[in-house]
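Q: Hi! First time doing this. I have a protein sequence and I read that you can turn it into a structure. Is that right? Here it is:
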Amino acid sequence: MRYSDLDPGEIYPHQAPAINLIDSILDPACNRSPAWLGVAAMEVIEAACISARNGENVLIPAPAERPAEPTQQPKHQPTQRLPAHPHP
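A: Yes, that's right. Below is the predicted 3D structure, encoded as structure tokens:
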């Protein structure tokens, strides 16, 4: 199956996250990243670290299973910080 090429306006600009980060550092009011997206990214990173440490799959709740309001308690407890890897 061949998909049609995207119009230039539909192509995600690869430099957009870096530009957003720099803009947010220079002017915190300019942050265009939703908090939920950062939380989701950290959940994936945390699950990958736990999986690498334990050698097991780690389930991440689907967005529909997440609390609707930030005041609700999460369904999981935060894990312990992973020890930093010593530099050789």
